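Model it.
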Amino acid sequence: MQTTFTTKAYGKNDIRGLYPEEVNAELFYYTGIGYVNWVLENLRIQGSPKTASDLYFSVCMDARLHSPDLKKSLISGVRSTGANVLDIGLAPTPLGYYSEFAILDKEFIGGGKIYGALIVTASHNPKEYNGLKMTFNKASLNEAQIKEVKAKCEKAYAEKDKMISYTPPVGHLVEKSLIPHYVDKLASTFGKIGSGIKVVVDSANATGGIVAPELYRALGAEVIELFSEPDGNFPNHHPNPSTLSTLETLQKTVVENKADIGIAFDGDSDRIGAVTSDGSAITGDKLLFIYAMDLIKELAPRGEVPTVVSEVKCSQVLYDEINAQGGNAVMYKTGHGYIKSKMKETGALLAGEMSGHTFFKDRYFGYDDAIYAGCRLIEIIAKNKTTNKDFNLLDVLKPFDRMAGGGEVRLHCPNELKKPVLEEFAKLDMAKLFNEEIKDIITIDGMRIIFNDGMAIIRQSNTEPVFTMGFEATTQEKCDHYTKTMVDKIEELKKLKA
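Modeled.
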C-alpha cells in the first residue's frame, strides 16, 4: 500500500483526493492525531479544557472499496491520543452529523457527549477518490479550521520519530450502528405522511440504500428500490444526481410505475436529486424553490419572513421569487461549509445548492441530509394531494418557465491553472466580450455576470480540476450565446496559461 505522506488533499471544505497517492492510511492516521489535538486546543481556548480521555468522536464511512482501511487507520490515530471512538460503520454522512445531535443512551457511550464526527467519504467523486469530512461542536469545519487541523497533522507527522520509544494511551472503541436510532427518530417525527405516495429510490450502490427505503416505508410510502446494495465499484451509474445522465433509470422507472416522485442520492447521501411524476429531472435550485415555497406558505400567515440561503450558481428566478413571495433570499459561496456558516450567521431556516445539498433548520438540525430532504418532499406531495389529487411538483415551478437554461457546464482545467485563468478572465471588458450591457458582476465566488436578460456564472470547483459554469436567459438563443462566448474564451486562456 502507498504510504507516502502528503497533505495536498486538504481542501477548503474537507479532505479529498486520489487514493492512494493523495489520500492514504498514513495521512489518515496523522490527521486523526492532528484533529484531536486541534479539538483539545479549541476547548482550552473556549474555557472548557478537557483531556483526550474525556472525549468521544463518532466515525463512519461510505461504500468505497478503500474506506474500511482508511477508517481503521483514522480510528487508530484518534485512539492513540487517548480519545475515544464511537464507530458507526458504513453509514450516510448525515448519520455522522446526527451522532452529535442525537440523545444517545448508555448502550452507546455511557451517556456521554460526541464532540465531533469524522466521516470517511469522497461524496460524489469517482471511485478512485476518497476523503474526510470533519465536524466539531455540531458544525462542519470551515476553511480556516481545516488549515489549522492540517498544521496539527503535519506537526504530528514531523514528530513521529519522538514517539518510537513512547507507548501511547489507547482510547475506548465502541462499535454500534446508529441507523435504527435515526429511522425511529424521523419516523416518529413525520408519522405516516407517506401513506398513498409511491416513491422510487435510487441509491446508486452507495450509502442511501441501507437507510432511506426502510425509513420511507416506515412513513407509509410504497417504495420501489433501485441499486440499494452498497458496492464501491458503483456498477450501475456514477453516484452524482446532479449529473442528469445518472437519473435515466430513475426517470424511466418513475414513469413506468406511475410513481409520485423519484429520489436519488449521491455517494454519501448528503445530496439529493429528484424526478417528478412525469419523469422530469429537477435541478438543485428548483428543488430548493419547492422547499422554500412550502416554508413560506407555512410561516407567512404568522407574519414570519424566513431567510433562505443559496449559492451563486442558482437561477436568478430562485432569488427573485423567494423575495416576491415573502421570504428573504441570500446569495453566498458554493460549498457546504460556506453555506452552513452563512446559514448560522443569518439565522436561515433553509439553504441549498445546485448540487443538491439541502439544509433544514426548520424542524431539523441545520445540516445537509438528503434522506431527511426526501421526507420533506414526500410530505409536500402528500399535503398538496389532499386538495389536488393530480398534483405534480412541476406545478410549483412555473416561475422558471420564463427563463431558458443552459444547464451546468463542467470544463476541465488543471488545479494549478484555475486561479490564473480566472484572474485573466476577470480583467476582460465583459460588455465588449459578450456584446451586452452588464447590470452587475458579483464576485463572492468566482464571477456571476448579470445581463439585462440573463446571467452567466463561472467558478472554480472546490473538489475537482474543473470550472463549473451556469447560464440562463429569456431566450435559448441568448443563453447559447452566453455559453459559447464564455467557454470559448476560457479555452483560449487555458492554452495561454498552460
